[in-house]
Every structure is written in C-alpha cells, then in structure tokens.
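Example: Class II aldolase/adducin family protein.
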Amino acid sequence: MATASLDKPQITEAEWEARQQLAACYRVFDMLGWSEMIYNHITLKIPGEEGAFLINPFGLHFSEVKASNLVKIDIDGNKLDDSPYPVNRAGFVQHALFHRHLPDAHCIMHTHTTAGMAVSSVEGGLRPTNFYACNFAGQIAYHDFEGVTVRDEEGARLLANLGSKRVMLLRNHGILVMGRTLPEAFIKHWSLQRACEIQVATASMGTPLTVSDEVVAVHQRDLHMAQVPGGPGAADFAAMVRLVDRTDKSWRE
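Written out as structure tokens, the predicted fold is:
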C-alpha cells in the first residue's frame, strides 16, 4: 500500500504502513458483513516496536476506522499516543495475552459472526463436512465460555487450550484466529467463516456427509498447490482491498 505523508512526525513509515493495512482490514470486514456494532477487534503488532500494537478505537463502527484513528497501545493496554478514543478492555485483555506469549501472533482477529457463533455453540463444533472445514480438521482449539473476557486470570486457560494451534473457536462466543501476517490471519478467518456458514446451511438440509480422515489428510497435504505466490492470504486480501477502494478510500487517511 502507498505510504501517505504523516501529520505526526513521531509515526514511523513502518507504523503508518501497518495502520493503513489494519484500517483496510476493518473496512474489508465491514464489507463482508462481519461488523458487530462497535465491538470485536483486530489487532496488529507494529514492526520494529517491541510490545506495541494497534487496535480499533472503542466507540467507532468498523466502517469508520481509518489509519489515523487506530489506537496505539502497549502490551498492557495503555495508550501510547494521544488518541481521544478509549480502548475496550474486553478487546485488549485477550489479544494482549496472545501477543505477549506467542511471538508468531503478529495479527489477531476476533469476531461474533452469526455462523461463527452458531458453530461454536453446538456440540462437536466444526465438523469435516465441507471443503473449507477440511482445511481445519485437527487444527482448531476450543475454549469454554467464561463470560466477557475482562479478567486476566482466564489467560492461563486460554493459552493452555490453544496449545500449538493458531485457530480457536471460543465456545458460545465466536471466532479467534491469529497469523504471522495480517493477510495470513485474514485468509484463516475467511476460510473458517465460510466453513461455518456452509455447516449451518448443511444442517438445515439433512444429515451431513462426513469426510474421512484419509481424505482430509490428502486434502490438507495438497492445499498449498492452490495458493497464489506472495504468502498466505496476500493475494486474497489485496483483492478485497481493491473492492473496498471502489466505493471508499477514506480508510487510507
């Protein structure tokens, strides 16, 4: 993405690029129908700044997020800039936990989509009954609902339940994904959301066909053959940003 001239000299070029990428992601999520009033969060580490990341301003809709109004916070949720907006504690407690303990969790996404919440609220969670669900077989962690995530002491259980996985269904709650890059996290979320949507649709039609473990293994082995060069999700995310740009480029400001 093109780098804009900065009004604040203390913002580095790397931070501005991160701000633009994250702001674009919020607009893409809104375009795809994944907004939840003023709630839910996507956070992104700022390159070259240990313990600093960006989060959406609490009180704004995803469609209002811009590069300039994202809030810069430290690993404890304290604001590192002069943003007039507050930060939702329920947002940064969970995200800061993973950013603190998982060096590869550069981007974290949490949503309350209808399909994601529905699948997280049924026994068995996501089942290998469709193409996208097979992508995640054996790769999804689960965490039982404990109420609004504002208590630090829940963190140990979240980390233990996540283990080495980087995709989680929060039971009765929704989707949580993380990636080494924002596009990687995006394609994980998009694929998981699609898997959940199709599972919900299939459940309304009758008994679903379960894909065998053997076929799932082959499917996951060969998935890389369908990827476009540039890194996981890079081309997918870029395409979505182009769609957003057709109607509104204010996220770049």
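DSSP finds eight helices and seven strands in the chain.
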